[in-house]
Design brief:
This protein is of the alpha+beta class and 482 residues long. The chain contains eight helices and 22 strands. The C terminus is likely disordered.
């Protein structure tokens, strides 16, 4: 039964196809080679052309659906609902008043002093008169002392008006203060402006080859700092007689900078000097009274009770001797002091604190001064050209105070100082006599000194010495290739 039904359906389907072919005969003639009939009697389908047609149709359909469908979906999307906004009144900050334009900055002209220039020369070069200079000097008051002696490299600032008149003048009163003189007001005024100073610690190390100043210069120290170093150790070292090649020094000192520019050197913080194998040290310490002093590692003041040599001399012209041929009398006799040759007029300093016991003319000694320091020790100074003003018998003098000037009065063949060191009235050799040691710091200050000064500074000095030794070891030895 089912077979008959299928046969009927097939016959009906074929009848419909024949009817369609007759109605559309022209189309079937053009596409006669197309066939979807898979019966064995039908000719084979041309698959190559058919694939291209189907693939192109599918691609076009896909592209159209990709563009058309999203656009259609967007068009069909309902319009968004706008939420209502509520406006709230807010207080606005008050507008600050419009600032006035900044005042015009004064146009100061900076002038650097050239060698040989005077202050009047500098004023004249700016079209200013000596009257202008006098007005500045009068207005500067106590600061004008800085204008009495100027040096090359020093700077002065001028404020010149459009009419060429002097309206202001600035200069350094000292390292820390600048003086500002204004002449553009009803009355001339002078104010001081503090300058910010930057203090930095610096280190220098030198080895003696010929003399101390040459070694200092090679280490980067100026003459003033070398002088400070010599003053620290002058109580223990004779820098004319005792120095030997190979002696060395290390100095830690303050250097002052202003506006990034080095302005000079300050005080020595710590120093070490090795002379003929003996090591001397000095450390700066603020004492209980607020003053600074320099002390050795054991806390004793560097400044001894007596100066070993009380004058800056050039050479020893005659040493201490018990049997010397006198150049004046021609006889052999005792020379109870040391003669230090120095230029005429060189200042002579008191070797220690004491009282003037004698001041006047003494046969053979010429202008002569004797200072009593304690019940046992006195010092004597002969052949002075003149005495210092104001010194009288019975007056107290301090160590280092000028008591007279080098000359050749009395029995002398040239300008020099005859210096004696007497113990209980007996002359001793000033170069070899054992000088009394000063007392160390009190116990509490001594402990603070060792903990806060000696320990850290000694460690720094040792590190510097170690680096110097390593640098020497790393330096290749000179050799000659054969």
């Amino acid at each position: 039964m089912s077979g008959k039904i299928r046969g009927g359906l097939r016959a009906r389907k074929q009848a419909i196809c024949r009817k369609a072919q007759r109605r559309h005969c022209s189309f079937y003639e053009r596409c006669a080679h197309w066939s979807f009939d898979r019966s064995e009697s039908a000719s084979p389908i041309h698959w190559h052309r058919e694939r291209w047609v189907l693939a192109g149709t599918a691609l076009i359909a896909t592209l159209l659906s990709g563009f058309i469908m999203p656009a259609w979906a967007t068009a069909m999307k309902p319009a968004p609902t706008v939420e209502p906004h509520t406006l709230l009144p807010l207080p606005l900050p008050k507008l600050s008043p419009i600032r006035q334009a900044a005042p015009k900055v004064d146009d100061w002209q900076v002038v650097r002093v050239q060698p040989g220039q005077t202050l009047s020369d500098i004023f004249s070069s700016h079209g200013l008169s000596l009257t202008d200079l006098q007005r500045v000097m009068d207005a500067a008051g106590s600061a004008k002392s800085a204008l009495h002696s100027i040096h090359p490299g020093q700077e002065f600032d001028f404020l010149i008006g459009k009419d060429g008149s002097l309206r202001g003048f600035r200069f350094d009163k000292d390292q820390a203060d600048r003086a500002i003189v204004r002449l553009d007001g009803p009355q001339p005024t002078m104010t001081l402006q503090a300058r910010v100073m930057d203090v930095r610690e610096e280190v220098a190390h030198g080895v003696i080859r010929s003399n101390l100043y040459a070694a200092g210069a090679a280490a980067g120290l100026n003459a003033a700092m070398v002088g400070k170093l010599a003053n620290l150790f002058k109580y223990d070292i004779d820098f004319v007689q005792d120095l030997r090649p190979g002696d060395s020094f290390t100095v830690i000192y303050d250097a002052t900078y202003r506006d990034g520019v080095r302005r000079g050197e300050g005080d020595i913080v710590a120093a070490e000097f090795v002379n003929q194998g003996t090591r001397y040290t000095a450390y700066r310490f603020k004492k209980a009274d607020g003053d600074y002093g320099w002390f050795s590692e054991d806390g004793r003041p560097i400044q001894k009770s007596f100066l070993r040599i009380p004058v800056d001399f050039t050479r020893i012209s005659s040493p201490f001797s018990m049997d010397r041929l006198d150049p004046i009398t021609g006889r052999r006799q005792e020379h109870s002091g040391v003669d230090y040759a120095a230029p005429m007029g060189t200042p002579i300093h008191a070797a220690g604190d004491g009282v003037i016991k004698f001041r006047g003319w003494e046969r053979g000694y010429g202008n002569f001064v004797v200072i009593q320091h304690n019940k046992d020790i006195s010092t004597a100074y002969g052949h002075m050209s003149r005495f210092a003003k104001g010194e009288r018998v019975g007056e107290h003098v301090k160590q280092g105070e000028v008591i007279g000037y080098v000359g050749m009065t009395g029995w002398a063949t040239g300008p020099h100082l005859h210096y004696e060191f007497r113990v209980d009235g007996v002359a001793r050799n000033p170069q070899t006599v054992t000088l009394p040691k000063p007392q160390p710091l009190p116990a509490a200050q001594l402990a603070k000194f060792k903990a806060t000064v000696v320990k850290p500074e000694l460690a720094r000095l040792e590190q510097i010495d170690q680096r110097i030794k390593l640098a020497r070891n790393d330096t290749p030895a000179d050799h000659t290739d054969n």
